[in-house]
Amino acid sequence: MDITLAQCFIAVDHHDKALAFYRDVLGLEVRNDVAFEGMRWVTMGSPAQPGVDIVLEPPLADPNASAADREAMAGLLAKGHLRGVVFTTDDVDATFEHIRAAGAEVLQEPLDQPYGVRDCAFRDPAGNMLRFGRPRRKG
Questions:
Q1: pLDDT at residue 94, rounded to an integer
Q2: What is the number of domains present in the chain?
Q3: Which residues form the signal peptide (predicted)?
Q4: Quick check: is 31 in a domain?
Q5: CA–CA gap between residue 139 and residue 127 (Å, rounded)
Q6: Structure confidence by residue, pLDDT tens digits, 80-113
Q7: End-to-end CA distance of the chain, in Å?
Q8: Quick check: 126 pLDDT over 70?
Q9: Cα separation of 22 and 110, whole Å?
Q10: Containing H/E element for 77?
């Protein structure tokens, strides 16, 4: 059995701000942009991983959700309580400087973690935590 990742989802509260960050700062390509029942989904991905998509979706992508549920999800997103995404990069320090220079909120400067990676962390425009790392070289 061969299982691979096809898509992951990131909740965003403003697709155009998210696009400016994920496309213009991180360099992801836009693969699809779909509107449906007052909602929008933007599919993006790294040119180096054509088979893996990141879908930017509304905080609660359910047209039948109650107003209270939509408000609760929007509140969790605003507080940064929804799960984030971990990216790999060949140069953590250069990636950090590039993203910081673009004005992203820094959560953690580059750091050698005790579990064997060097990484850094930011918040995207919607408040999601994004980590950028690579395994530390041994020796």
A1: 98
A2: 1
A3: none
A4: yes
A5: 37
A6: 888 789 999 999 999 999 999 999 999 999 999 9
A7: 36
A8: yes
A9: 20
A10: helix 67-78
Catalogue the E-assigned strands of the chain. Answer: 7-11, 29-36, 39-45, 53-57, 85-88, 105-112, 117-123, 129-135
CA 112 to chain centre: 22
Backbone angles phi, psi at 60, to 5 degrees: -135, 95
- Does 1 fall in a domain? no
Please indicate, yes or no, whether the overall pTM of this predicted structure exceeds 0.85.
yes
Q: Which domain holds residue 121?
A: 7-135
- 82 CB-near residues (< 8 Å, 6+ apart): 11, 59, 76, 127, 128
Say if 37 falls within a structural domain. yes
Answer whether residue 69 is part of any domain: yes
Lowest-confidence region among 30-39, 40-49, 72-81: 72-81
Dig out the tokens for 77 from the structure: 């997103």
